[in-house]
Write a structure and sequence with these properties.
By secondary structure, this protein is of the alpha/beta class. It folds into two domains: 239 residues, Aldolase class I (TIM Barrel, Alpha-Beta Barrel), CATH 3.20.20; 55 residues, Alpha-Beta Plaits (2-Layer Sandwich). It has eleven helices and ten strands. The strands form two sheets. An eight-stranded parallel barrel has the order 1-2-3-6-7-8-9-10, surrounded by seven helices. A two-stranded antiparallel ribbon has the order 4-5. Strand 6, helix 6 and strand 7 form a beta-alpha-beta unit. Helix 5 packs parallel to helix 6. The longest helix has 17 residues. The N and C termini lie close together (7 Å). The protein binds iron/sulfur cluster (2 copies). One iron/sulfur cluster (SF4) binds next to helix 3.
């Protein structure tokens, strides 16, 4: 299974529509989008436009402290307009006047890391899961995913309970090792799946979240290592690799004996089609569309 990750924080309807369209044409059947009504409608529209006969949607939310629910902000008073943030933003979320387009910001934190003055910082933007997640399931979303890399245990319990009450086809746990060691990671998963039916849970083994900026084995190494930790624990879950995933992930995972259920690709999948998405005549540029779909198809095939 190949899953296109549009970005849990990506609330730009037009860019999601273009991404989903390209990847649906390329044979992708799983689409990970933000928990947002307009984004779900745009993704469905794109699938219909692409003429795809099968599409499954996953929406992602995060607990407090998880980077996937953050957005960037820029303090004008300390900004020296050096442009580092603008040049390095992977989602074109910063305008030439150094203003963050919140809808496009996926919370990767690159701008804050590259900012020499501390003008670019991150803040949390939470959603009302009790309101939005039931709507998503009622409207055909099959996978509800929770990013759990934060220290707020009560927020984790609350949001996981809401997900379970929604009774989606699959509940998904997205976890990496940046804040916690292997023991804590496995303890969290064991606790969360204790009352769930076997294999009704996906564990998305996140290598280094939102790090897939190139197509090397090194970039995808941590996702494979994380998947191995989950696999060795013999849990009744499906394993999906993510976080630094690219066209090398399937090959490396197979070489390492990982019995994965799927590969979720975000940063790299978006990067390889970005030049075409930025075409002003995207929807009518047949040559551009053909090239974009060819690029996406290579990645989808390599991720089988
Ligand atoms: S670099 Fe990342 S965090 Fe900063 S504005 Fe762009 S998408 Fe948002
Ligand atoms: S990197 Fe920091 S100082 Fe430079 S333009 Fe961006 S916000 Fe301003």
């Amino acid at each position: 299974m190949f899953k296109l990750v549009c970005g849990a924080g990506n609330e730009d309807c037009e860019s999601v529509k273009k991404l989903v369209y390209i990847y649906a044409k390329a044979g992708c059947k799983y689409f990970d989008i933000s928990a947002n009504k307009e984004i779900l409608a745009s993704a469905k529209e794109a699938v219909a436009l692409a003429g795809a006969d099968e599409a499954h949607f996953c929406v992602s939310v995060g607990i407090k402290g998880d980077p996937h629910i953050t957005k960037a902000k820029i303090r004008e008073s300390v900004c020296i307009k050096c442009g580092n943030c603008l040049r390095n933003c992977p989602n074109d979320a910063i305008t030439s006047s150094i203003i963050v387009n919140e809808k496009r910001c996926i919370g990767c934190g690159t701008c804050a890391k590259k900012c020499p003055t501390g003008a670019a910082t991150m803040y949390e933007k939470d959603v009302n899961v009790k309101e939005i997640l039931p709507y998503m399931v009622e409207n055909g979303v099959e996978i509800l995913e929770l990013h759990i890399m934060g220290h707020d245990k009560s927020d984790l319990d609350y949001k996981w309970n809401v997900i379970n009450e929604c009774n989606p086809k699959y509940a998904s746990i997205c976890i990496d090792r940046e804040n916690f060691g292997n023991k804590e990671v496995l303890a969290r998963i064991r606790n969360m799946i204790a009352h769930r039916k076997p294999y009704s849970t996906i564990v998305q083994a996140d290598g280094i979240p939102m790090s897939g900026s190139d197509d090397s084995y090194k970039t995808t190494l941590q996702a494979v290592a994380m998947a191995e930790i989950i696999q060795n624990a013999n849990l009744p879950v499906h394993i999906v690799l993510s976080g630094g995933t690219n066209s090398k992930t399937a090959e490396l995972a197979k070489q390492c004996g990982i019995n994965y259920w799927g590969i979720a690709v975000g940063s790299w999948a978006r990067k390889i089609v970005k030049p075409y998405i930025n075409y002003p005549d995207f929807w009518t540029n047949q040559e551009g569309l053909k090239l974009a779909v060819a690029k996406a198809s290579e990645l989808v095939k390599a991720s089988a």
